[in-house]
Each structure stands twice: as structure tokens, then as C-alpha cells.
Design goal:
The chain is of the alpha+beta class. Helix content is about 25%, strand content about 30%. The protein has 2 domains: about 240 residues, 3-Layer(aba) Sandwich (Beta-lactamase); about 210 residues, D-Ala-D-Ala carboxypeptidase C, peptidase S13 (D-tyrosyl-trna(Tyr) Deacylase, Chain: A, 3-Layer(bba) Sandwich). About 45% of the residues are buried.
Length: about 475
């Protein structure tokens, strides 16, 4: 690391390095009446030599929201390496079909599949094809090994009333379709017709929708005391849909696999069995599904996919164990903290709880986030990592921001939001050089996001 972290603790308002001193735009932004109740922490550092260009509360740990994903992805590259591949193995154990999960968060992810030109349901069809090619027409049990991770699929700090939301889905050693099902409702001949995608027998839906003749539809799925039995409630005009997180997601994949096998004429005679498959078991590996770590980082940073971040943290744990079986949050975050210490970050400037930033117990200072980004900027894969971030005016979570020149295509970053918290950290790629920055806020309001964008433009322009 080219700079000393203690420099960040000095609050500095410095003249622009790009030219003559202009209006103190950051101060003007912070003094807006709409931001009186908001607390800001800001740090901007020149990537070339680590010079601090602007600092305000840079050493104060604050809730990072999804900026936590920057730490998780950087730590994953540190521990797993840029060539890491997530693997899901399909094998035979006697006459039973075995699926061994490897923590891949993108197996069956529609966005990733579309990028590679894969058809919906291709995973199960691939397995069917492998069995057919071997002349296998009958199997006994379907054995699911999801024990690459531990059995704690729901983080204890996540909001209990949001666990059915896609962004709070369970984290399994065998994930599929982002561990969600899309439910759509349409009005047909006076009836509310429900449809699931992917279609399955795993979820049971209780239709409690009400028709309305005016206004927009507003519907949702609510968990009952029975796992994967959902009450679908709300007002339906013509059509509406939503994604719902499921419980025990490895069971969904097993259900879809059995349906595909039977549809193809392959008999499944036994049961669904969940068990840990030992390395010494006599397996015949038939096929392996692979996902590059970069595909996971793209979805994690550019699209803010929480499942990707949590799988990275648990995979760090699983791949750096001595005699352990399962990847877990406590061990994973300990290793992530050790990575931050290696960067020279003081442990008092961070608290790690989950990998995605959904937990309100996380704390990061701007010092931490800039140290992480600066370290990444020195790596041989720096350009590839920057490409995982959302690109201002073009894609990801900031596609609708920074659409004017010179900002469009030259600001890369990671947004963050949970109630009362808005954050943004990344890289400004100016004609004079790259600037690494972090902006953390709490106690703001809906206008604070615009304030963050304006501060980012000021950092880009060098008008501190």
C-alpha cells in the first residue's frame, strides 16, 4: 500500500490538483438544508501515489450497506485467487444420482444464463442428457450434498420480516435460480390464476387475492408455519408478479431434477436423501458445472446480488480450513478481517457481520473501503475488477446516474442502501488519473442519493 492510513484521519479541504481552485462544491453540497440531518464521511485519494485529496470523518466506522460487497469480493480474490472456479458435481454412487454443491451462487441464474445463451432449465436438461448418453434409464435415490456450507442458511442479523425477499434469500451449499421462485398472477375469466417460474411441486400456494377494478396491482407472498407454503395476498387488477425466497433451496433443485428425469422417461425409484458425501466414497463423476469467480463478482458488484457476496464469504471459509467440512459466516468473516489487517487497516475501523451488507451490525470506515480499492488497483487484475463495478450512465445500479459527459463511462462504483443509510464507493477515471473514493452517509433522506452523486462529480472534477 503506497500511503499511510493515519493520513486519512486528517480533515482536509485541498485545492484541486487538476487546476486552479474553484468553488468548494463539497462544502456547498453538505450545507444544503435537505442534508442538515445527514452525517457524511468522505475520502478521496489519488490512486497513482496515494495522496489524500479530500477527507471528512474518514476514520469513523459507519454502516456500509452494500458497500460491504467491495470488502467481500476483494477478500475472495485474496484468498481464492482470480482463477477460482465454483464447481457443482453430478455423480453416481451405486445406482443413486448424487449432486454435490460447491457453493455456486449462480447455478441456474437467469441473467448469467442469458449472457451465455443458455435456455431456461438447461442445468437439469444437461443432467438428463448425460444419463441418456450412458444408457441409464433408472436410478434409485437422489442424493443432495449441500454441506460445502454449514446448515445456517439465514444470517441471524437479517431483518426477520424480510426473509421472503429475494435479497435476503437463504445461503446454501447448493443454490439454484438465486434460491427464489417468481410468482405471477393474472386475471382470467373471473379467476386469479397463479403461475410459478420455474414450475415446481416444491412450493404450495394459497390463493387469497382480491380483485380491484382500479389502481395498480399490489400482491405479495407471505410465509406460513409450514415451510414453503405461501399465502398469496393483495389486490389484483389485471396482472402482477414478484420473486419470493424459498426455504431449503437445495430441495427446489432436487424437485426440478426429479421432474426433468421423469419427463425424459428416466425412472426415479427411491427417495430424496440429504447427506455429506465423503471423499473416499466410490463416486463416478458424470458431469461438472463450473462458474468463474469473475461471473460471481460481476453479479455481486454490478448488480448488488447479496447471495453472491454471502457465498464468497462462506467459500473463503470452506477453502481455508483444516479438518473442517463446512464454510460458515464466523470463520469467513474472521478471515476477511485478517485480510483487512494485512492492508494496514486498524481493527477499530471495522466490524464484520455478513458479506452483503444487509446486516445493520456491519461497520466500515472510508479508510477501510479506500484501502481495499487502492489495494485492488495495484493488482494485475485491476482492470477486470473495475469492470465488475457498476458503470456510471451505462449499467448496473448507477445506469441512470452520471449520464452526462465527462462522467458517463468514467465513474465506476458500488452503491449501498438500507433504511437510513446510503453509500457509494469506487473509482473516478479522470483525464489526469484515477481517484479512489468512498462516501458513507447515515440519517439522510431521499435527497441524500443526489447529494452523494454531486459529491462524486465534485471529486471527479477536482473541485473540493
Amino acid at each position: 500500500m503506497k500511503y499511510k492510513l493515519l493520513f486519512y484521519c486528517v480533515v482536509a479541504i485541498m485545492p484541486t490538483i487538476w487546476g486552479s481552485v474553484r468553488a468548494d462544491t463539497i462544502s456547498q453540497i453538505l450545507s444544503r438544508s435537505a442534508q442538515k440531518s445527514a452525517e457524511f464521511a468522505i475520502l478521496a485519494v489519488r490512486a497513482e501515489d496515494g495522496k489524500v485529496l479530500y477527507s471528512r470523518n474518514a476514520d469513523k466506522p459507519m454502516i456500509p450497506a452494500s458497500n460491504m460487497k467491495l470488502v467481500s469480493t476483494a477478500a475472495a480474490l485474496h484468498y481464492l485467487g482470480p482463477d477460482y472456479v465454483f464447481r457443482t458435481h453430478i455423480a453416481l454412487l451405486g445406482d443413486s444420482l448424487v449432486v454435490i454443491g460447491g457453493g455456486d451462487p449462480l447455478l441456474g441464474d437467469t441473467i448469467t444464463d442469458q449472457r451465455y445463451g443458455r435456455e431456461p432449465g438447461w442445468v437439469c436438461q444437461e443432467i438428463v442428457g448425460v444419463l441418456k448418453a450412458r444408457g441409464i434409464e433408472r436410478i434409485e435415490d437422489i442424493v443432495i450434498d449441500s454441506y460445502f456450507f454449514d446448515s445456517n442458511r439465514v444470517h441471524p442479523s437479517w431483518p426477520a420480516d424480510q426473509l421472503n425477499q429475494w435479497y435476503a434469500c437463504e445461503v446454501s451449499g447448493l443454490n439454484y435460480n438465486l434460491n427464489c421462485v417468481r410468482i405471477t398472477a393474472t386475471r382470467q375469466n373471473g379467476r386469479a390464476v397463479l403461475k410459478m417460474e420455474p414450475d415446481n411441486d416444491y412450493l404450495t400456494l394459497i390463493n387469497q387475492l382480491r380483485f380491484v377494478s382500479s389502481g395498480n396491482s399490489a400482491i405479495g407472498g407471505y410465509r406460513t408455519t409450514t415451510p414453503n407454503r405461501l399465502s398469496i395476498r393483495g389486490n389484483l387488477n389485471q396482472s402482477a408478479g414478484f420473486d419470493v425466497a424459498i426455504e431449503h433451496p437445495e430441495g427446489l433443485f432436487a424437485n426440478l431434477l426429479v421432474r426433468s428425469l421423469r419427463s425424459a422417461g428416466i425412472t426415479v425409484r427411491g427417495n430424496l436423501v440429504k447427506k455429506y458425501i465423503r471423499r473416499e466414497d466410490q463416486l463416478t463423476v458424470l458431469h461438472t458445472f463450473s462458474t468463474s469467480i469473475w461471473d460471481v463478482l460481476d453479479r455481486c458488484n454490478k448488480d448488488s446480488l447479496g447471495l453472491a457476496a454471502e457465498c464468497l464469504v462462506k467459500t473463503i471459509s470452506a477453502e481455508n480450513t483444516q479438518g473442517r467440512i463446512n464454510g460458515e459466516w464466523p470463520h469467513g468473516r474472521m478471515l476477511v478481517g485478517r485480510y483487512l489487517n494485512l492492508l494496514g487497516v486498524d481493527s477499530e475501523q471495522f466490524v464484520l457481520d455478513d458479506g452483503s451488507g444487509l446486516s445493520r451490525k456491519n461497520r466500515l470506515s472510508c479508510n477501510v473501503l479506500v484501502a481495499v480499492l487502492d489495494d485492488l488497483m495495484q493488482k494485475p487484475y485491476a482492470e477486470r475488477y473495475i469492470a465488475t463495478l457498476a458503470e456510471g450512465g451505462n449499467d448496473g445500479t448507477i445506469a441512470r446516474y452520471f449520464q452526462q459527459a465527462p462522467y458517463r463511462g468514467n465513474i465506476y462504483g458500488k452503491t449501498g442502501y438500507i433504511a437510513g443509510v446510503r453509500t457509494f464507493s469506487g473509482v473516478c477515471r479522470t483525464a489526469e488519473g484515477d481517484v479512489v473514493f468512498s462516501i458513507l452517509t447515515q440519517g439522510g433522506n431521499a435527497t441524500t442519493r443526489q447529494a452523494i452523486n454531486d459529491i462524486t462529480k465534485a471529486i471527479f472534477d477536482g473541485t473540493f
